[in-house]
Amino acid sequence: MEKLEELRRQREEVNSRIKNDLINMKILADESLRVAEVAHNSETILDNLDKEFEKQTGLQEPDIKFLFIATGLQCLRIYLLDKLTKREKATKIKKEDGSYTLEGKIDKSEQKLLNKFDKNIDIDEETRLYYAPLNQIIANPKVPYDCTSGGGQGFFQNANHRFSTLGHDPVLGLFFGTANILTNTISTIRTPIPGIFTNHVLYETTQKKDGKLKIAKPIIDGTNILSCSTIEMCNKVRDRFENDKLSVVAALIKQILHIGTDMYTKLGIQLPGASLILNSKQVENISKYTDWGTTVKSGISGLFSLAINNIISLLHNFMYSNEMGISHDIYNIRTKKIIAYSNFIASCSNIISTGIKMVNGNGLAIKDLDIGGIIVTVHKLTENHQYIRKIKEEYIFGNFNKMIEGEELKLFEI
């Protein structure tokens, strides 16, 4: 009897296993059919996932508001920089409305800053060869390498003095311009025989009504054009640095601010080092299209463009909420689209307006081209394309793989 019960139990166990096995086989067959169906319709599924991705990353009404704000800020940035760096005639201190030009503002700042040296001035100290006293450095509104008069006009080799003098180089001028101010000299690189040539600069002095010295415009001593030694000039500057640091500081301040006053005049300031490899006429021709002022403006413009992008990105991401039903990566694509679109619109408007000015005969308008902003725009478009492509691939293929994997199969034990 016990053996019969055991056989019955074993038979039921075998039947149960067979039943479970058949059920498992059906589950696996159904799963295979499901996977095959997904694979068969993969093109449609991927297309639907692509459309869903575009729908989720498309700009919504709140995003459009951010886009308008971002675009407005970028356009305002371009407008204000153009206004602040508007090219004016040299020595034009005030505009027609009575406000000061950029040159005028820097001139006022220079005088205010240099006046702080007044208590250290020896008003009786006189000018000597290779020596400009502190009273002259402060009181003289001009710098010696600005001279265009006298018998040595040929010193500039038929080019504007700005593109012939090392003092007007925005980098080399930090030394040579300062040295010229301290020693009342003018230095140039001349061709066809390359080399640095330095010449003494003379000043006519008269008396003001109040008894103070008034120093007139500088004049090149045309009778002794090659008599001045560049090496001797450097030695004298070294001596001043060792024994009269105050005058060196005043001359350096004057040099930096003088470059600032010339930077956004119509002639502009040459690119750093241009005179080392090109003759003065070539430097002048290049400066008609791009110069140091354009470079500085481009750098500042690019930095402000990045700052606006970062602020908009921060504020837009601050609006993200899990209740939106999308991941933060997907939402961040909207942010990047806002940044890219606003940069693109602002850059295109600048290119079009600059192009119109040039077509109308304003050749200087090319200097209004927002190079810094355009570089940022190209960078953002490239960066965003790569980012969006990466997230899109993760979204589409990630969801497709989940469809292939399906839910975890619940198989019976055999």
Short structural description:
Helices cover 60% and strands 7% of the residues.
CA-based gyration radius: 37 Å
Number of E strands? 4
Element-level helix/strand string? HHHHHEHEEEHHHHHHH
Mean pLDDT: 78
Distance between the termini: 28 Å
Question: Can you summarize the main beta sheet?
Answer: 4 strands, mixed
Number of helices: 13
In terms of DSSP E residues, the strand content is 5-15%
Shape: elongated
Q: Structural class of the secondary elements?
A: alpha+beta
Neighbour order of strands in the largest sheet: 1-4-3-2
Unreliable segments of 5+ consecutive residues: none
Please tag this protein with its features.
414 residues; alpha+beta; single chain; 13 helices; 7% strand
